[in-house]
Predict the 3D structure of the following.
Amino acid sequence: MSEGRILIVDDEVEMCRLLESDLSLRGFSCQTSTSAREALELVRRDDFDVVLTDLVMPELDGVELCDRIVANNPEVPVIVMTAFGSMDAVVEVLRASAFDFVTKPLEMEFLALVLKRAVKHRRLIERVRLLSHPVETRDGFPELLGQGRAMQEVKKHILQVAPTDASVLVTGESGTGKELVARAICRASKRKDKPFVVVNCAALPVALMESELFGHERGAFTDARSARQGLFREAHGGTLFLDEVGEIPLELQPKLLRVLEDHRIRPVGSNTETSVDVRIIAATNRNLLSAVAEGSFRQDLYYRIQVVEIALPPLRERGGDVVELARHFVTRCAESFGKHVTGLSEKAATRLVDYHWPGNVREVRNAIERAVALTQHETITVHDLPDPIRRYASTPRFRGGRRPGELLKLEELERRYILEVLDLVGGRRSEAASVLGLDRKTLYRKLKRFEASAED
């Protein structure tokens, strides 16, 4: 996952290239511009976490650029680079509401630290916005919550593929909402008024899978006391969703492939084939290409179901979307339980964003159901959240280990604590110095010493 999306603005092409090269290696996603006016247009139509701009430029200087960005996009922090160490230049930059400034020649470790603080500040603003505004579903997918770039890409692909009859493979970790995507595709398609049939391939006994999918005749096997039409016939005219398609036994895969190619099925025990008109949407949390390489999944079947692939991102890569999901589940659970619970405290929201969510959306729903059921407040607090979420956010950060040889040296402990304080105050060095009981110059010296130690 990117450390953040940075727009670099400098009229010197070589400086743009050097900054882009170095910051990209540090995990940032960078775009450059040599024109302040072009940068304004880029910020207007695109989504950047931070703008990093030079102070002295033709047309518009860094202060003017900062003024205009703050006026039109106040949520985007601006960091100004200046070669002038005078207090007048610094005051001018800060008066323009810049998030921070850095002096040339640039110390890249320190610049990366400032950028990370700015990115966190930007994401905190987004988190507060989500807490303060009702969930919107103007994109036509009320079941697919999330306004981040990752989910917007998913929704765009759904709109593109839904009007067609192309087979779709939805991939993603368990709990990311693959069935919701399949239902959204169906509802946006010309088959929306026809059956939507779900089959969990992992839950079907292998011995009965062929019969369940294709049907059987009376007497075809023991206990077949009556004929069964099967799920393909049940979905005729509509959509068949094959969840966990990677669990279909290898011996049954050629029969499924033949149905997908010929659109005809033969029930178990029958000599007659029947035509079916079914759109296939499949889903898996497995890597099917690896299964193909291992020989447990047929390559021809893989390419038949994977005409279009929609990959769902795990929740830990969706940023503030977890807050939107949590607020949705709070509302739904409060109505279901008959409790007056209206939302999340900011500290609870912060814990949710910090947590890594191995169970994805399903785990969010479970955590919020528990919190709503147990809370004695109108808003969910940190103490209402399950233990793993509380412990994950409060794990000690400064202890090196349990044995004497693993314990941290005092200098390393100081370094970690100073960086932690900087993180907590959003990178504002004056405020950090006050919290630490240091003057600003002493804090700068310590930060530079940390950078030098890291380089050594």
About this structure: The chain has four domains: 4-131, 149-311, 318-393, 404-455. The radius of gyration is 28 Å.
